[in-house]
Please model this.
Amino acid sequence: MALLALLLQVIAIVGPLGEADILRRLMFVFSYVLLIVFVSFNLRRVGIAIIGLGLLLNFAPIVTNGGLMPVTSESLARIGETHRLEGLDPGDAIPNTKNVWRERDDTHLWFLSDRVVWDNSILFRVFSIGDIVIAAGLVVTLGDLFLPRIRSKAEPSRPANSTPVQP
Model:
């Protein structure tokens, strides 16, 4: 389910949808619904629960701003990307991104939108608080998956009913 959701996001962002802006927005919202359902079935894992919180933090501004994550021209200017707005009007989807151009005063839940700027990054230069929470959840999930295996190789195994030897 999660892989299908991520595939839908890729298609919505870079797929050959032409001028089908409403389809792009619906696919993006539906992908979030699928991801939230996936997380709800896996809440017993702390990292997945953290990812779910980040998804909800992103889902709110996406839904309240027409199905895409809002970004302001001010945020794009801080990373030198205002050329992406050429030929667009506020409220238009920015081609080949998950973003919609909104000015701060016209952005619902602006504080949760793509407004955090990290100019030293190659891939993600403007992102949201939800993205930070999702990244933290991924780190916790990966640690949960891999650290027990590393610990079990480093520690000698002992029978389950045995007690440690006291010196």
Residues 2-144 form one domain. The radius of gyration is 20 Å.
